[in-house]
Amino acid sequence: RRHSFPTRRSSDLEAIYLRFYAQLSYDEIAEIMKLTYQAVINLVYKSVKFLREHLVPLLVFLGACNLGDV
After folding, report:
1. What pTM, to 2 d.p., does this model score?
2. Cα–Cα distance, 43 to 8 (Å, whole number)
3. C-alpha angle 14-17-19 in degrees, rounded to nearest 5
């Protein structure tokens, strides 16, 4: 049985990229993505929450697996 990792929409990833990598303001992101200021805040918040809930436990698990290989 194959397990799939939960994914986010590309717009969610774009908002994360623009906010944290490109270091744009919420206003700038709203203009680029053609969203309201509040929509961008909600999108970034939900995307970061998703990453905390799914990516961090996965990285911890993978780190624990690698410790067993030493």
Report:
1. 0.72
2. 11
3. 105
pLDDT digits (tens, 9 = 90+) for 22-42: 999 999 999 999 999 999 999
DSSP string over 18-52: IIIIS---HHHHHHHHT--HHHHHHHHHHHHHHHH
Residue 5 backbone phi and psi in degrees, to 5:
-85, 135
Q: Is the dihedral of CA 5, 9, 12, 14 positive or negative?
A: positive
**At residue 25, what are phi and psi to the nearest 5 degrees?**
-75, 165
**Pair 33, 14: CB distance under 8 Å:** yes
d(CA 40, CA 25): 10
Residue 49, both tokens: 């929450």
